[in-house]
Amino acid sequence: MKNKSTVKHRVDEESATIINDGTTNPIKIELKNTSFVLRDKEPKQLAIEAKGLVKKFGEKRAVDGVDLAIPKGTVYGFLGPNGAGKTTTIRILSTLLKPDDGRVSILGYDLANEADEIRKRVSLTGQFASVDEDLSGLENLVMIGRLLGFSRKEAKERAWELLSAFALEEAGKQQVKNYSGGMKRRLDIAASIVVTPELLFLDEPTTGLDPRSRNQVWDIVRMLVSLGTTVLLTTQYLDEADQIADRIAVIDHGRIIAEGTSRELKASVGTGVFQLRLKVPEESERAEEVLSGKLQTEIHFSSTDSSAMSAQVTNTALVAEAISELTKEGIEVIDFSLGQPSLDEVFLSLTGNPPEEKGSEGYQERNHHTEGGG
Amino acid sequence: MAESFSNSSNAIDNMDNEKLRKALLIRERPKKANAITNTLTFGWRALLKIKYIPEQLLDVTVFPIMFLLMFTYLFGGAIAGSTGDYLQFLLPGILVMTVVTITMYTGMELNNDIRKGIFDRFRSLPIWRPSVLVGALFVDAVRYTIASAIMITLGLILGFRPEGGVVGVLLGVGLLVLFSFSLSWIWTTLGLILRSEKSLMGVSMMVLFPLTFVSNVFVDPRTLPSWLVGFVDVNPISLVVTAVRGLMHGVATSEQIAWVLIASLVITVIFAPLTMFLYKNKK
Ligand SMILES: Nc1ncnc2c1ncn2[C@@H]1O[C@H](COP(=O)(O)OP(=O)(O)OP(=O)(O)O)[C@@H](O)[C@H]1O
Ligand SMILES: [Mg+2]
Predict the structure, then answer these.
(1) Where in the sequence is the domain holding A314, given as residue range(s)?
(2) Residue A69 domain flag
(3) Topology in the membrane (chain A) (predicted)?
(4) Which CATH number does the domain housing residue A300 bear?
(5) CB atoms near residue A18 (< 10 Å)
(6) pLDDT value at position B271?
(7) Element (H, E) at B47
(8) Chain A residue closest in CA terms to B119
(9) d(Cα A116, Cα B238) in Å, to the nearest integer?
(10) How far apart are the first and last CA of chain B?
């Protein structure tokens, strides 16, 4: 396959799988027997490219040398604690704030000179409700539609279309101040896609939302991306970045301290916490022997519960083996959990310091399993 | 009221993926709206706010009526010999005072928007940037006109007989609205600088209170001690009151009117660009 332009394959769906997860430039095609990789002539276009971005507020460097290269059609997550500089970065990228230093190109347009072109293609949903709470949901959307150039009739049609798609039809004529948090957030996002943008910024879109509303926001984001919009969102939760972002930048003190897919980040942190409880406390010594043999790590005993123990694990695949080993030995486990590394642990491992402040308690996510009989 | 739908059943709150897909699929962008459409849209927004918060109109209705009645009947006799005579003198003055006081609304609204996220949204839209302010200021002009109409109607009922006739009254109101429009730019400037709505309110009261009271709104300056007369004479509020009163009673000189026009122009030339500059460069 020396000259790929002359090679023509008829590929039917049964015999081939085309793998393009949107994050990588090469498109991989697996045929039944062979597999080969097609590369675009040009590398995938970037939605955002930034070099050496700096923003100072007085002495404080809120953004301190940020570089970004975000491919089109992906979800990119900024992950960081309060005051990390997420909002400031987003405000710079969405033309609201002038950087003190650095070069930025958004969708191929220069931020410093072509802000108007950028504004046409980009939308922002800020951290705090960026809708008019005194007006109704409908009026908010009509207003944005009119500002963007729709006629009165078109603006109204578009507004109802969005309200109905975002499950806000019932509340369309109510003042926004009476909306629940989740409804407000959805309206806020709807206002950003009255004209579906090429690039959408979402600043902490799910902070303060219940799990259901959070899922709705994620659904919207996924749908947008599947239709070609690039999304840059910020979050304080590793869990969220994990669920929705193709790539994640971990930000602290205005700097990107780590970048990669969530798998890469977690791998770089390496450890998760494995916890379990035995049915019979007396078996704990035997259990320790089995576990430390399998997991190759130190086993800690709980000081309050003699049947509970925990371990830091680097290779989570070993956990399953350890459990089945215990079962083989006749040691009954009544409860076990394997925790992802928490944001705290990511920070600890990346900076050697825990994050200075915490937004809320929701940093840690645990995949919890309970076994009935063992 | 809030609970009626935020606690609604899940069925209502469920998003329909197919609808969502269809709504997001549409990507055509309409032709960019022009500056006038933008301005009218923001004007519409300000009108909607009056619809939802009619209390806003209290300041332009109840208070001036109270003032007018209070001063006419309480001091009319003492100040001018008779309530009827005093009303002829007082009404244009109170009108100016009322309208000038409500000029600070736009500044307060703007300050409010900034502290909420909506300011960011407007600034990230591809629109003619001054339209946010100009639209709101036009609606204020509507508010000034409403206030004027109420006052003058009440005045006519109480016995106000403007010698300048309908034309004189209309010209007087027009001049006042023009001056107030330019004055609003000062409050928008401050609205962009000051941290909170309250501090803006404080500052504007501090400025407006002495300006309106130590003026010729209530009394003829000739009755004042001479050191005060100096101040009253250069007080821009006095200039406006003199011109408006003159127009309504058909005795205004072109010099008096020219002073108001100059004052309006100077204020606008300084504060409108300053507002826009601050608006563009707001952190
Ligand atoms: N307008 C401003 N003036 C002065 N300092 C500011 C301003 N905006 C932000 N900062 C400071 O810059 C730093 C970064 O703030 P930023 O809002 O970007 O953080 P963030 O990551 O969005 O935090 P959060 O999770 O709380 O939203 C903070 O220390 C903040 O105090
Ligand atoms: Mg923030």
Answers:
(1) 270-340
(2) no
(3) Peripheral membrane protein
(4) 3.30.70.2030
(5) 11
(6) 94
(7) helix B35-52
(8) A130
(9) 45
(10) 36
Q: Does B16 touch chain A (CB under 8 A)?
A: yes
CA distance A70 to A245: 12
Residue A358 lies in a domain: no
> B241: which 2 tokens?
């009151």
**Chain B: closest CA distance from residue A1 (Å):** 38
Cα A259 to averaged position of ligand 2 atoms, centre (Å): 19
Domain that holds residue B165: 56-281
Domain count, chain B: 1
Whether A165 and B31 lie within 8 Å, measured CB to CB: no
**Which residues in B lie closer than 8 A to residue A57 (C-beta atoms)?**
283
Q: Which helix (H) or strand (E) holds B175?
A: helix B165-193
A181: distance to nearest CA of chain B, Å? 9
Tens-digit pLDDT profile for residues B62-101:
877 888 888 888 877 777 777 888 888 889 998 999 889 8
| Lowest-pLDDT choice from A277-281, B54-58, B229-233, B270-274 | B54-58
Residue of B nearest to A118 (CA): B126
CA distances B266 to A162, A244, B27, B179, B186, Å, are 46, 55, 46, 11, 11
Torsion angle, CA of A56/A61/A66/A70, rounded to 10 degrees?
A: -70
Q: Considering the domain boundaries, does residue A286 fall inside one?
A: yes
Q: Which amino acid is at A69?
A: A
Residue A223 resides in a domain: no
ipTM: 0.79
Residue B9 lies inside a defined structural domain of this protein: no
Q: Phi and psi dihedrals of A72, rounded to 5?
A: -65, 150
Q: pTM, whole model, 2 decimals?
A: 0.74
Summarize pLDDT for B158-212 with one digit per residue, the tens: 888 999 889 999 999 999 999 999 999 999 999 889 888 889 888 988 888 888 8
Ligand 1 atom closest to the Cα of residue A251 is: 21
Distance CA A300, CA A286 (A): 14
The count of domains in chain A is 1
Q: How far is CA A20 from the centre of its chain?
A: 19
Q: Looking at the domain assignment, is residue B2 inside a domain?
A: no
Which residues, by Cβ under 5 Å, contact ligand 2, an ion? Answer: A 86-87, 127
In a domain, B237, yes or no: yes
Residue among A55, A56, A57 to mutate when testing ligand 1 (max atoms within 8 A of CB): A57
The string of DSSP letters for A238-255 reads: HHHHHHH-SEEEEEETTE
Q: Which helix (H) or strand (E) holds A312?
A: strand A308-313
Instruction: Collect all residues of chain A within an 8 Å Cβ-Cβ radius of residue B20.
Output: 165-166, 219-220, 223
